[in-house]
Specification:
By secondary structure, the protein is mainly alpha-helical. The protein has five helices and two strands, in the order βαααβαα.
């Protein structure tokens, strides 16, 4: 059974990944809106790269890819806060690449339940 997280959860998690928001704090309206404005572009980019397809359900994010999306969103919004990107660590030297690869592994070869499209020549 898949559980879901909300868009607000995603934005707040991205702000925590950037160090802008600490656990238990509430985001400033300006910070929240700045990151929230990047969500649609992130989804469109990931769909264009055929990494993920959320069927425009931006408020129902599967929990198995939630943390990875928060890393990618944080990295996209980092420059707005004067940061070069999401900080790397010794245990995670390439957080953006690791998040993208993890999403691909989770969603790879999952049934889409869409009718197969045939090509007629």
């Amino acid at each position: 059974m898949t559980t879901y997280r909300t868009r607000a959860d995603l934005v707040n998690e991205a702000l925590m990944n950037l160090g802008i928001l600490a656990a238990g704090q509430t985001a400033d309206a300006e910070d929240y809106q700045a990151v929230d404005g990047k969500v649609e572009a992130l989804y469109e980019r990931l769909e264009a790269q055929e990494i993920i397809d959320l069927d425009n359900t931006v408020d129902e994010i599967p929990s198995n890819i939630f943390m990875q999306l928060a890393v990618l969103l944080a990295d996209d919004a980092a420059l707005m806060f004067g940061l070069p990107g999401i900080p790397a660590s010794p245990s995670n030297p390439q957080p953006v690449q690791l998040a993208t690869d993890s999403i691909r592994r989770v969603t790879y070869a999952r049934p889409t339940y869409e009718p197969q499209k045939s090509e007629w020549f």
